Amino acid sequence: MEADETDALQPRHPRARVIENAVDTRRDVKRRVPGAASSSRATGVSREIVSAKVKVEVLPPEPIIPESDIEDGDPDPVYVSEYAQEIFEYLRKSELKNMPDPHYMDRQKDLTWSFRDVLVDWLVQIHATLKLLPETLFLCINIVDRFLSARTVSLVKFQLVGVASLYLAAKYEEISYPMVSDLVKCCDDGYDEHAILVAEAYILKSINFDLSYPGPMSFLRRASKADKYDVQSRAVAKYFVEMVSVDWNMITVPPSLASAASIWLSRHILKRGGWTPSLVRFAGHSQTDIIPVAHKMVDYVIRDRDQGVQHEHFSKKYSGKNYHKVRQYIQDWAKNLPNMTVQQFERLMVKDQ
To answer: Where is this region: Disordered (predicted)?
Structure first.
C-alpha cells in the first residue's frame, strides 16, 4: 500500500515491533437414539422368526474393480459426478489465473520473506484458535500474497493485511464466520474494527474482487478417490499441502500440483505403492511433474531437522493428536536423509518404490 493511498488503514498502535521481535527471536533460536419396540411386538416378531423356515441366499462376492477402471460415478447427486471432469478443468484454469507474483518481495521496501514467515505462522495460529475450515487458511494466504503482488505495504500495516485477509476468506468459505470483534482481540486490540473493515475493502478492490482461487483441498479429495480414501496417507498429505502454503520457497506451486505431490510423497513414506494410472488420472499430474515439488517438501523437512523449527505454530499444529502427530512421523522417516539435488532425490525415490 502506498502511504498516500492508505492513510485510512493506519492502525491505532504500531505493530511493526511485534513482527520484528518475532523475526529476531527466530534468528536467535533457529529453531438420534431410536426408542425400543414394545414387548408384545417384540414377542410376536420372535415367534415369527422361530416358526419361519428362512432360506438364506448366499450372494457371490462383488468383483474387484481395478484401479484403472475406477469411474467418477457417485450415487449421491450432491457430488454431480457427471460434471466432475468439467469442474476440475475449470478449477485448474482458475488456479493458474490466481497465482501470486513469486518476485513481489523485491518491490517491498520494509518487508522480507522472514516477515512473511512470521505473519503466515501467526495466521495458522489464529486459524486454529477460531477453528476455521482448511479452505479458509489457503484462501487467506493466497489473498495476502496476491495483495502484496499488487501493492507495497509498510511493516506497520503488515499484520493488518493478514487479519483483514483472514476475515475476507472466512466470509467467503465459512458458514458461520468470526465477528470483527473476535479478530480485534486476536490482534491484542492493535487495530479497531473500522481499520479492519477499511482494509478488507481495499484488499478486495486490489485483487479485482476475485476470490475464485480453488485451493488444494478440492484436488486432494479427488486424488484420494484413486487412493481409496486411505486415512493415513490423507493425514500425511494434509501436512505437506499446508507446508506448500506456509513456505515461500513453494509459492509458485499451483494447488493441484501441491495436492498431487502431497499424495505421492505420503504414499511413498507409508509404502503404499507407486503412482498408478488411476492416481495420474484423478490427481492430474504425472510423476515427472511431481518430483521437483516433492523434493522441495523433503528439503523443508530436512531444514526443520537440521536448522530448527521454521514455523512454530504450523509445526505445533501437526505435532498434536488431532493431526495424528504426522510431523514427528515424517521427521523420524527423514532422520537419515542427506541433502540432495532433484536428480539424487528422484533416483532415491524411484529406487525405493
So the answer is: 25-44
Domain extent for 160: 84-206
**How far lies 231's CA from each of 114, 223, 287, 308, 325, in Å?**
34, 13, 22, 29, 14
Burial class, 292, CB count within 10 angstroms (exposed 0-12 / middle 13-18 / buried 19+): middle
Which of 156, 174, 206 delimits the end of a domain?
Answer: 206
Nearest residue to 102 via CA among 241, 253, 212, 207:
253
Indicate the number of domains in the chain: 2
Cell numbers for 168: 475476507
pLDDT digits (tens, 9 = 90+) for 30-70: 444 344 444 444 444 334 433 444 343 443 443 433 443 34
Can you give the CATH number for the domain in which 129 is found?
Answer: 1.10.472.10
Q: How far apart are CA 266 and CA 290, in angstroms?
A: 12
CA 198 to each of CA 145, 230, 242, 263: distance values in angstroms, whole numbers, following the listed order? 19, 44, 29, 40
CB of 11 closer than 8 Å to CB of 195: yes
